[in-house]
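Tutorial, part two.
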Amino acid sequence: MHSGFAALRSNLPMNCRAFLPDVARSSDTEADIARILAIWHDCRTRRGAGGPFLF
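Running the prediction step on this input gives:
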């Protein structure tokens, strides 16, 4: 994910210590989230539907 999902990385950085309850998400960020969920769904459908792991 080093070069993709730019809106997601800009608006929702990985900071495990931060508490940001009201973070506004742009439409680009929502699109990135939807794309990630679609990728995960596709991976689960193809490879991991019967178990607890993504792959």
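DSSP finds two helices and no strands in the chain. In part three we will examine how such features are distributed along the chain.
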